[in-house]
Amino acid sequence: MNDFSKCCKLRTLINSKFLVVCSVLFVATGCQNSTIKYDLNEKQKIYIHETTKNYGGLIELYKQRLQRSDSEDTRYKLAQVYYLSNDYEAAKRTLTPVLNKSKNDNLFVLYGHVESKMGNNDIALQYLDKAITINRKNGEAYNVKGIVLLKKKQYDAARYSFNLARENFYDENKVTNNLAMLSILNKDYNEAYKHLNILYTKGYRDQTILHNLLYTLVKLNKMQLAKSFCLGHRLSNEPEILIQELKQVEPVDAIKFNEIVPTQSNNQKQYTIEKIASQQITKAGKAVKPGKITNLPSTNKSQISAKLSKVTKLKTDTEPESKTEKEEASQQSMVSNSVTSDNKTSSKKNNLVNQVTTTLNILAVRSGEHKAFSRITFETANQLSKNQYKIEKISPTEFKLSFYDVTLPSKGINHIINLISRSDRDFASVTGTLTAENTLILQIKTKKDSIVKDFDAGPNSNGRAHCFAFDFYSENK
Asked: What pTM did the predictor assign?
């Protein structure tokens, strides 16, 4: 073979190897880009489902991930979503395969939650103790253990567990709330008032705190004080009726346990807010706007319980139990002044806000379907206040949502209407207008007789916007 032939053959071999190497590199690069693109798409979907609280979508994503790779972390996340959607059987089934080999204390806390929800308090305690054995500084484990012990009426042990939760830096306000709940169950209303008033003094004004403070005032027989408090915070337009109802209710029927949703991410905190807010609707099927309670002509014990199912957190120093009219008047003056001061402070804050901006800047609107309701979520630059929107029920199937002095996203009102219309399981039609005064009016027609529940869902998952939700429930659900 001459030199020319050898040279040609060598060049052919080199070219062949070059093509093979390049092909391998292109395939590897393509696979890598595909994987990265897939991961990004999945993360985007998770973000959207978390923002709209679409549990069904999250469940499907985590199930698909579990099919690709069965890991403890994915099972934990999937079980969390099952727990949040009240499917405790599915949560238990998801966690069971990894219980024997897990060293994750938070996983055992979640399993304790699940077993407690299913009524298996003794089993729940076993797994909460496992969590504490792994991590003796898990404040949430002590808090949940205290709640389980409350259910078992082991009040001294529950108090000890709550104090351990506090010592391990678990949320002080949640612990204070649970200690108040413990005092109510013990019928130690002075102690309950002390704990609740601490939270109230800190500035907490959610419906749970206000109703539980009102309940303790009634049980302490401070009727004038309770009436002033009820009117000052607009808990009822007929305070005498509500107070008489509360007098008849025993603590075990009045309260629900403030079980905190298992740990640790921002979206889980939003789910907790959602869960608490969801208790603001009466079992009779009438929507309750924040700050108001609908009085029913006939109220049974379960309906009263629904009104009182908001055990939370209050503020200020403990006041001695008063027995004279003079002392009662003094206490009434103090709470009235507190309410007046609170209203003045609120007014000043509102005036300050109005000086800075009077515009409701809507950044995004999302909609999604859940098992029992369809949700519309507004993301706004600032927290939506009560005077910036209005809900009107035109008929059992027709609703009008008004938002005042708004700035819409660049895509405009039609984009908002299209986003809401996609949730067509419960919505028959959606129309909207923007008036010359920049009032956004959405007219929504549902396929069945419905009720609306509205609540502040807190910041979105990246903390850059504020979420406010409107849930449409069928009245027969």
From this structure: 0.50
